[in-house]
Amino acid sequence: MALMRITSPHAHGPQKTSWVMQQVLLATVPGLIVLTHFFGFGTLINVLWASILALAFEALALKLRKRPIGFYLGDYSALVTAVLLGIALPPYSPWWLITVGMASSILLAKHLYGGLGYNPFNPAMVGYVVLLISFPVQMTSWAPPRGAGELPGLMEALQACFTPGNYDGVTMATPLDVLKQNNSLLVEDLWQANPQFGRWAGVGWEWANIAFLAGGLWLLYQRIFTWHAPVAMLATLTLMAALFYDGGSSASGGSPLFHLLSGATMFGAFFIVTDPVSSAVSVRGRLIYGALIGILIYLIRVFGNYPDAVAFAVLIMNLAAPFIDQYTQPRTYGHVKSGGGD
Amino acid sequence: MTDISYRELSLNGLWKNNPAIVQLLGLCPLLAVTGSVVNAIGLGLATTFVLVTSNTCVSLIRNVVSDAVRLPAFVMIIASAVTCIELLMQAFAYELYQILGIFLPLITTNCVILGRAESFACKNRFLPSIYDGLIMGLGFALVLVLLGGLRELAGTGALFADMDLLFGPAAASWQITVFEDYQSFLLAILPPGAFIFTGLIIAVKNLIDARMQAHRDANREKPVKGAKRVRVTGTIS
User: Fold this and answer.
1) In this complex, do B196 and A96 lie within 8 Å of one another by their Cβ atoms?
2) What is the DSSP letter of B23?
3) Once rounded to an integer, what is the mean pLDDT over residues B64-69?
4) Position A31 in a domain
5) How much is the pLDDT for B228?
6) What's the number of domains chain A is made of?
7) H/E run at residue B115
8) Which of A105, A107, A113, A134 to probe by mutation at the B interface, max B CB count within 10 Å?
9) Considering A189, A238, B15, B63, which has the largest number of Cβ atoms within 10 A of its Cβ?
10) Are residues A241 and A289 in the same domain?
11) B183–A130: do the CB atoms touch at under 8 Å?
């Protein structure tokens, strides 16, 4: 876990890796329930299939690296990666898409760099970005939410995943996408014209975001991570949205509330940005790290070409995290301030 | 230097001191144009041609050109060879010339070529220099083709597409579709794929080397247990 050099007293917390990972898994449950309620069984099947693959790939990588398989499988870290990627992927993704994603996450992003604790990039996000770059069609087709379209049943959902050739899915642009493509309607009219918009943001998306926020707050209460990075990220995202919000013209980037409750905002803030391995570790560093991710998310969402931005923003800042740590290393009490990072 | 063995030169160029995966020279074209086999063959041939030409000329003039101006002279020779190959490709493989684009003139700056001129051709006689250029070029081209093949296969599920760009209309039917109904995997064709596959090739090469070394070590005569070693002190001259 995060190796921050701190002074005594070195009080021990009871946190073990496996316990922390279990808490993270538990905290995703409300979000999973909401996603399943609004988008059908697709996300659950994603998560299950990804979990099976994660354990298989993890075992394979550990065997090749001659590490104790049982010990490392027991830390649940592969499962967390699988659940995070399964949630991030569009529901009703075909099995091979999830397989390629999990292989990239576990083999490429995690074990090629030395396994848990040594990966400079968040494995789930690497898997997501590999897929987004390679298979843009599959990755940008999201199922319509409950109310805006018919939800497939369990059998149909299984069919969509394992025999994708026989399945005709219905897809619909996500609210973020609709807002970005829009260049003629006022935001208010856009809300009227499209069934996927809900009370504050998209139907389903707003509740999913609130559920992930709840899970995140619970993790915060359990002291799995500190508040700095997520709060900084949400604050700068809000600030950017407020600065660029023009009251709802056709060129508007969307209101702050819309951005807070759209796409992967809350999921990213509490489950991705807080990754102890690939993020900055000092307190000031976490604030900077989170704040820059928030700014990047807004810029890529509104001015970029991809439907959501959390994965790209997080990966870019993963690159910058060691640099941020270098310049924000806390000064040991009694030592003179050194002249900038050295 | 009279004791250069051609066997040693071949082994160096193709494996032990391969310009692409051991010296890691010329990575820019290696990563940029190996999206397909035909691009890789085109650039590999062009680079080999330039290497042979520049090595030949450099070994011929090595006793005439003074040390102070040797680098400018080498670069002039290389640039002329590159211009030749550029004009040739423009004449005989125009589509490929367009695809390779800036990477053809950039062969001038490929470190492999100046490296061989500086470290081999300017110290050796005519024939070994030609041979060194040829074998180093082949070593580079083989890695290019291997990488191009891997990336084309992973990226599109087929091999040898568009070979008619280089080998004339008869080669248009050379394409082999390895996987039917394949979702194209764009990452392999994009630059990140080049980095990942180059890394994998280097890893496999190192693995083979390590295995061979282990094999050699196992076969070496083991010292007899209890045998005394002659103690040597002082300097040996």
Assistant:
1) no
2) S
3) 87
4) yes
5) 66
6) 2
7) helix B111-119
8) A134
9) A238
10) yes
11) no
Pick among B181, B185, B187 to test the A interface (most A CBs inside 10 A): B187
Please say if the pLDDT value at position A163 is more than 60: yes
Q: Which B positions 45-64 lie with beta carbon below 8 A of chain A? A: none
The pLDDT score that the predictor gives to residue A210 is 93
Average pLDDT over residues A166-170: 71
pLDDT at A195: 75
**From CA B107, how far away is CA A299, in angstroms rounded?**
38
**A311 lies in some domain:** yes
CB proximity under 8 Å: B 192-221 to A: 192, 196
- Which structural domain range is residue A257 located in? 174-202+216-325
Residues A168 and A122 in one domain: yes
Asked if residue A331 belongs to a domain, the reply is: no
* Predicted interface score ipTM higher than 0.90: no
β-bridge partners, B176 = B159
Q: Does residue A166 fall inside a structural domain?
A: yes
Q: Which tops the pLDDT comparison, B232 or A215?
A: A215
The CA distance from A136 to the nearest CA of chain B, in Å, is: 9
What's residue A286's pLDDT?
A: 93
Same domain, A197 and A154: no
Angle A17-27/A29-39 helices, nearest 10 degrees? 30
H-assigned helices in chain A: 17-27, 29-39, 42-64, 69-73, 77-88, 95-103, 123-134, 136-139, 154-162, 175-181, 187-193, 205-221, 228-244, 256-260, 265-267, 283-303, 310-327
* CA distance to partner chain A, nearest, from residue B185 (Å): 5
- Sorted by where each begins, the domain ranges of chain B are 6-219
A7 touches chain B (CB under 8 A): no
| Structure tokens belonging to residue A109 | 């992003």
Q: Are residues A311 and A220 in the same domain?
A: yes
Report CB contact under 8 Å: A134, B186.
yes
Q: Is pLDDT of A340 > 70? A: no
What's the whole-model pTM score?
0.83
